Amino acid sequence: MRNKLFDTFDEAVADIPDGASIMFSGFAGPGTPRNLIAALHRQGAKEIHAISNTPGRWGDSSLVDLSLLVQSRRVAKVSAAFTAATHPSAKLPFTELYEAGEIDAELMPQGTLAERIRAAGAGIAGFYTAAGVGTEIADGKEVRNFDGRDYLLELPLPADYAFIHAHTADDLGNLQYRLTQRNFGPIMARAAKVTIVELDEPIVLSGDIDPDAVHTPGIFVDRMIVIPADATKEVKNQR
Amino acid sequence: MRNKLFDTFDEAVADIPDGASIMFSGFAGPGTPRNLIAALHRQGAKEIHAISNTPGRWGDSSLVDLSLLVQSRRVAKVSAAFTAATHPSAKLPFTELYEAGEIDAELMPQGTLAERIRAAGAGIAGFYTAAGVGTEIADGKEVRNFDGRDYLLELPLPADYAFIHAHTADDLGNLQYRLTQRNFGPIMARAAKVTIVELDEPIVLSGDIDPDAVHTPGIFVDRMIVIPADATKEVKNQR
Amino acid sequence: MTNKKPIDRQAMANRIAMEFQDGWVVNLGIGIPTLCSNFVHPDKEIVYQAENGVVNYGPMAVDGEEDLWLVNAGGQYVLPQPGMATMDHSDSFALIRAGYVDVTVLGAYEVAANGDFANWRVTGRKGGGIGGAMDLAVSAKNVYVIMDHTTRDGQARLVERCALPLTAVGVVKLIATNLGLIEVTLSGFVLKEIAPDYSPEEVQALTGAPLAIAPGLREFQVAS
Amino acid sequence: MTNKKPIDRQAMANRIAMEFQDGWVVNLGIGIPTLCSNFVHPDKEIVYQAENGVVNYGPMAVDGEEDLWLVNAGGQYVLPQPGMATMDHSDSFALIRAGYVDVTVLGAYEVAANGDFANWRVTGRKGGGIGGAMDLAVSAKNVYVIMDHTTRDGQARLVERCALPLTAVGVVKLIATNLGLIEVTLSGFVLKEIAPDYSPEEVQALTGAPLAIAPGLREFQVAS
Questions:
Q1: Which of A187, A238, C22, C62 has its CA 20 to 30 A from that of D80?
Q2: Distance between CA C92 and CA C132 in Å, rounded?
Q3: Are the beta carbons of D167 and D117 closer than 8 angstroms?
Q4: Neighbours of chain D (3+ CB pairs under 8 A)
Q5: Chain B residue with minimum CA distance to D107
């Protein structure tokens, strides 16, 4: 059996080159790969194309998230459903750089983001969705009428790497997520060339996970690291 | 709580009108809704548009499957990945009627069938797949090049009803399937207006199924019936 | 401004929640809309759905009872409840786009008399926060909005035509503001209910488009 | 016909299975291809995937040990094994279309010298059985075919151009027949290995397109 288990986060991200496209799972807190982000920050890769629901700093700002890479100027572009916080008074680190023209963004509806990632991991070359019709999101896109309703053509969004936070795994890389931690994990694992997973719980043996309860089959998982029990709150998010 | 549990299969299919489009889950044996098919046969609805991987009679011919409705001339059209058996020497009941021009068919690649059903339950108005490019399947379809490769535009495939065979359910209709019984169940439950489920096991209480282990959430399920312990082999498929 | 007492946030949310029908699948946007789930329906079952992949979640968690893996679309901790189910993000938006959501309640900066609305970018800013709003707005069977009737400096938010970039075209059906309940009809805004201290003329003066008065205009209904 | 002994079904399957590399995800078509899973790789791990939503399933079940809920794509009962995972049909074909399958082994009626092949409709019939073959054929990293070298009445199945409706265009890379192992190259068929009792000229005579002889032509390799 190929050993997918790495001892350190640093080893698991050591080969990521400048310019890589990386998907980051997570919605609000749950699913955010905080340890992998911290490791990539230490590693130093630059000009990252980050694909994520938000560009970071969502919720508790003491916790590590994508904003760590954004603020240290490691990110060239973000593809996301948010480039600003939901309340105009809250300014994200990303937003300031974006408004200053120092970072690029591709903003899209969250369902379109999810479906574009899903399409990349499903061999679908394009799909039509009604989200964004009649808005700025439609600019430059093909609008097509099906049965009397307009839809936009959207294209798949693949990546070189996916950083995912899951709950449990067996030694083959079969993953389970807990509750809303799942969010983008399963579709990003399928859409990326190399999928790297941080885990809440120690690895179990293959056979210990019910085949019907696997959320991400091991064939989509390349590297795994268990979050150490003594990890700090900033990367573990547990009180 | 709305009671989704029906006492008899006959009551569960009583209102299905002539001309209804009905999805039938199942691949080879597992997942085939044999009791619902038998009940619809007793009920008598005609001119059915059946959406199914095959038009029936796959494997053990003593078991009830879609061929029961086909042979009794209740089916006007089948949308499927097979209109003939995989081996030319095996003639299906459907194939004879089809070659005689007494029944219509829309034949397509199995992945396209699955994705068209998924699209119907995902609000996707069309998608591009490479399956079938350069073959008869492409006849009359838009061919479009993305990044140097040709793809076909395929459209969603919805239905009025879905007949599904699942393993367990709670009283809200949250479903679990067992192993390859899952196949088309989850996508058909989402793509149909009314989803009717037959169950291997007695209903459990809501809360008894781990939320992370639900395969089909109850909001997609309208009616359920538990297969009686004394059901015959023809509809229960157990030895 | 006057010292009249407009309707408060929870009352606006309650008023919208009163419209939910038995068995409805409800999606609540970030901000005031999440308060709708505080309204208790004695005789209706409401299924709350959040775009981050959870159906049939329970009430907001109180301090110390949070499950760190369970949040609503606003990132607030909520409690599990029997019958809850989780799914991934693509399955969640599949559900949304396919029309399984009976109502989405969203915040907005502006709503136009034709049902257009804008809720993702403020004037003079680059980018914004779209989130799931564009998907929800074109897919949910009903789109309701909760917002203040005017901006902080008194500019109308109910307008003839949106000045801000749109979220969706012609979808809003009902608006609860701190001054009343407004239906969006084919002929424009109709005031159905009004805040206790206000007259229709006062509300019209704070509205940027004609406001028809419903024949049965009544006081803002605040069940709690 | 002669009374020479052509290669049997299991040997054809074994020969193809010998090509599988460590860690490959393998999808086996209905019929002879399913026999590939009987070949035991002492030093390789093979992950068998079936389009009905199962990854990493185990060997064929013997009578009495079947699990009625677990079949392969041919509808045959197979055994679960540790590390197996199931999924629904759309997720299964998502996996296939996205290129995660390293090789698909399919049966065929005809293969052309340019890699086109036909396996879903026979002459003179209406409709046929496409199954997952069209999706697999355009998506898998490698498409291998196992079939008899000729029809029962001696017609060539390796042809210049397919007469039957195509399954996919230009995808077949390797063919095991009962007469040998044939690679499909940019310049057409190349005979790499040959059945013990046959000469290259005899195999060419039963082939409907030019058959180049590989420099290192050897006897059909039958590990078991």
A1: A187
A2: 11
A3: yes
A4: A, B
A5: B86
Kindly list the distances between the CA atom of residue A65 and the CA atoms of A31, A207, B156, B233, C199, in Å, as whole numbers in the listed order: 11, 33, 38, 56, 50
Q: How many beta carbons lie within 10 A of that of residue A102, not counting itself?
A: 11
The conformational region for residue A73 under phi > 0 = left, psi -120 to 50 = alpha, else beta, is left
CB atoms within 10 A of CB B49: 18
List domains and CATH numbers for chain D: 9-36+86-218 (3.40.1080.10)
Task: Write out the residues of chain B at the interface with chain C, using a CB-CB cutoff of 8 A.
Answer: 1-2, 118, 120-124, 170-172, 174, 190-191, 205-207, 211-212, 214, 217-220
Residue A84: which of C52, C87, C129 has the nearest Cβ?
A: C129
* Cβ contact, residue pair B172, C83, below 8 Å: yes
- Whether C95 and B219 lie within 8 Å, measured CB to CB: yes
Q: Where are the alpha helices (DSSP H) in C5-160?
A: 9-17, 89-97, 133-139
At C120, list the tokens.
Answer: 């993702």
Q: Which chain B residues are within 8 Å of C95, Cβ to Cβ?
A: 190, 217, 219
Please answer whether residues D86 and D97 qualify as being in contact, where contact means their C-beta atoms are separated by less than 8 angstroms.
no
Residue pair B224/C104 in contact (Cβ under 8 Å)? The answer is: no
The pLDDT tens digits of the residues spanning D105-163 come to 999 999 999 999 999 999 888 889 999 999 999 999 999 999 999 999 999 999 999 99
pLDDT in tens, C13-36: 999 999 999 999 999 999 899 999
pLDDT band with cut points at 50, 70 and 90 for residue A24:
very high
Q: Give the tokens for residue D200.
A: 């290259």
* CATH topology assigned to domain A18-108+159-226: Glutaconate Coenzyme A-transferase (3.40.1080)
Q: What residue segments make up the domains of chain A, in order of their start?
A: 18-108+159-226
C176 SS3 class: strand
Name residues 68-87 of chain A within 8 A of B (Cβ).
none
Please give the distance of CA B20 from its chain centroid, rounded to a whole number: 13
Is D201 among the residues known to form the active site? no
